[in-house]
Specification:
Chain lengths: 336, 325
């Protein structure tokens, strides 16, 4: 640390002002003259100090650009006011009060300064409201991709898919989504020429922007939630017998009670029959299997067979008694 | 980010904020920026030395503290705040979205404000989405109960539970954490504070009775904590069943080059692990303990014959009774 000279915060603020105020790119010599800083006798270390300051300001979001200067091959530095300034948002007093309330309720970390920026030129909030609500969202996984998603830059990264196969992807990032504790990137995969979903924890390298900003147009009709849930299948209707304890699990999926079919086994005490629409065997059989003997598929026979086949695969794996050829399981919980 | 960098970020916002609010008090400023008055005093001292005299065409900033009121002049270079960074903007929108989801109906201005904020930050709707879909109706009911401070009757399925159980609770607060909505409440049955996941609520009924307990501030999302008597489980997963690793909190994961893995974990509920293994339909094998293996074999045998008579509750109980709490 240099003993003489102004504290670092003053240096960084003044460097920002100098770059912001100048109408032409400033060389390092210009900056030294304008700010009165970086005048150490050791030119090398002065230059290094400037480079560090410049990087720290960029980290804060100060858009320092490098241009050719008017003189020789010294690079020139400039900050465009249009890229630096947050334009006025024109919030009404009701709106700014609502936002202030939401901010206070959310009590999310690391948002206070961003809100102060938004509200800097808006009226002061009024009123109060007492709801106990808090929001904790850890957006740390997004740091690497935030600029690309907002600035519409194509990114590339190494990715291991659900089957464990790794390759390099090139993606136009459309949206980021959190479900449970997983973060997903939804975007257009260049090689596969299709909208795909990528889990952040399966990225083997940090996504790196490979184009400049506004490299693609975000389509209006991408249904991000649908992309996360996987392709929609029309599915089929199945008839299921359910024990009293499994009924809630079926009802949570929209099952509707039906009369107990006459041509089947007698209903044990408390058991009911219900119909489940939109059943997609490849996706949903594993869920039925997990309910165990609490449910029994009554129709169609093909689905009942799939449950039985899963049971025999489980038995084969755990007892060594294998009947017939073991097939690939119906478990298909993941995408991409 | 270093301390000095953070200070600079705040000071670049402080100037435009103060230019709009000449005469603001130190305590107002400290509140708006979420720092101490002492920090604001130090910021102001630094800012008094900022500005570019002479050659820059400008002058030093004039920062005056009269009593506890602050006046700023000659700082027009910084009349507008610096744009939030991309990750700042995302974080802000995510938090505001979550509140809007819960309170948007009560506070219409919040929705219109969010539209303007999105435009200003360049974040269209659906660019970032952390709200679990399909939970909104239950969350809205819980929100109403929290607001009106009335008791709730819950039908709730705990993690190790096979079926929902009724609970009477005083709703204290609602929290979105890691993509899951939680209700923090006083459980009258258990006679203590409990945390409930909204996605495990089967039904909720708001009662006429007012909550009788005062909310406690501490909120921790429930995490599995090992206690004596818990089981150590070892499971083999095929490469198409790797979702299992995410569904549990593994103690260790041993990856193999062919994409399979051996997963070890502690659990207080073997039936819960058995359910997950069953879900693998043969692509997951419970290696230990023996009790878990037997449970799975019994469950699989009970569903192996689609033509057998339905045995009702007998089969499930037989399969899991050895250790079902």
């Amino acid at each position: 640390m240099t003993v003489s000279g102004p504290p670092k915060v003053e240096r960084l603020v003044n460097l920002t002002i100098a770059l912001l105020e100048s109408r032409r790119p400033l060389t390092f010599a210009d900056i030294k003259r304008k700010t009165g800083f970086y005048g150490q006798s050791d030119a090398e270390s002065a230059r290094r100090m400037f480079e560090r300051d410049k990087d720290e300001l960029r980290q804060l979001g100060v858009p320092i650009e490098i241009r050719d200067s008017l003189y020789g091959d010294e690079p020139g530095y400039v900050v465009s006011r249009a890229r630096y300034e947050l334009s006025d948002i024109d919030l009404t007093i009701e709106e700014v009060s609502a936002l202030a309330l939401a901010m206070r309720l959310a009590a999310a970390e690391g948002t206070r300064l961003a809100f102060a920026k938004l509200a800097a030129r808006a009226p002061d909030p009024v009123g109060d409201h007492d709801v106990r609500l808090s929001v904790a969202v850890d957006v740390a996984p997004l740091e690497a991709i935030a600029d690309a998603v907002i600035g519409r830059q194509t990114v590339s990264f190494d990715y291991r898919n659900a089957d464990g196969v790794a390759d390099l992807r090139r993606v136009d990032p459309y949206a980021v989504v959190q479900r449970g504790s997983n973060w997903y990137l939804v975007g257009h995969d260049h090689v596969r020429d299709d909208v795909r979903t990528f889990r952040f924890d399966r990225m083997l390298s940090q996504p790196r922007a490979v184009t400049s900003a506004e490299a693609f147009t975000r389509p209006d009709d991408v249904d991000v939630r649908a992309a996360i849930q996987g392709p929609e299948h029309p599915g089929e209707a199945i008839l299921v017998a359910s024990s009293p304890t499994a009924r809630w699990a079926l009802e949570a999926r929209g099952a509707v009670a039906q009369p107990w079919p006459r041509n089947t086994h007698q209903a044990p005490e408390g058991w009911t029959a219900c119909e489940l629409q939109g059943f997609e065997p490849r996706r949903d059989v594993s869920w039925l299997v997990s309910l165990g003997p609490d449910v029994r598929v009554l129709a169609p026979p093909s689905v009942a067979e799939m449950v039985a086949e899963a049971a025999s695969n489980i038995l084969c794996r755990h007892t060594g008694e294998c009947t017939g050829p073991s097939t690939e399981s119906a478990s298909n919980k993941d995408q991409s | 980010m270093s301390r000095a960098t953070e200070d600079v970020a705040r000071m670049l916002t402080l100037i435009p904020w103060l230019l709009e609010r000449q005469g603001a008090s130190l305590s107002e400023i400290a509140t708006a920026f979420g720092v101490s008055e002492l920090t604001i005093r130090r910021d102001l001292e630094h800012l008094d030395y900022c500005g570019l005299p002479g050659l820059g065409g400008g002058d030093l900033f004039e920062v005056d503290l009269i009593g506890d009121r602050v006046l700023v002049n000659m700082a027009d270079e910084l009349r507008r705040p610096l744009k939030p960074t991309a990750s700042e903007a995302l974080r802000l929108v995510v938090a505001l979205d979550a509140v809007t989801e819960v309170l948007g109906a009560d506070i219409p201005a919040l929705r219109s404000a969010m539209g303007k904020v999105r435009d200003a930050l360049g974040i269209p709707e659906r660019l970032v989405d952390v709200l679990p879909s399909g939970q909104t109706p239950i969350v809205a009911q819980v929100r109403d109960a929290v607001t009106s401070q009335r008791q709730i009757e819950l039908e709730y399925v705990g993690r190790g539970d096979r079926d929902p159980r009724r609970r009477r609770v005083d709703p204290w607060s609602l929290r979105l954490d890691d993509g899951v909505w939680y209700l923090y409440a006083y459980d009258h049955g258990a006679q203590g504070p409990r945390t409930f996941r909204c996605d495990r609520m089967v039904a909720i009924e708001i009662q006429d009775e007012i909550a009788t307990t005062a909310p406690e501030e501490t909120f921790e999302p429930p995490r599995y904590q090992r206690s004596t008597g818990d089981d150590y489980v070892v499971v083999e997963v095929d490469r198409n069943a790797r979702w299992f690793i995410d569904a549990v909190e593994p103690e260790t994961v041993e990856e193999r080059s062919d994409g399979t893995a051996q997963v070890a974990l502690w659990t207080d509920s073997l039936p819960w692990v058995a359910r997950l293994v069953m879900m693998g339909c043969g692509s997951i094998e419970a290696a230990a303990p023996q009790q878990l293996r037997s449970m799975i074999v019994a469950l699989a045998q009970a569903i192996a014959d689609p033509a057998a008579p339905i045995k009702g509750d007998v089969a499930y109980t037989a399969a899991t009774e050895s250790k079902d709490a």
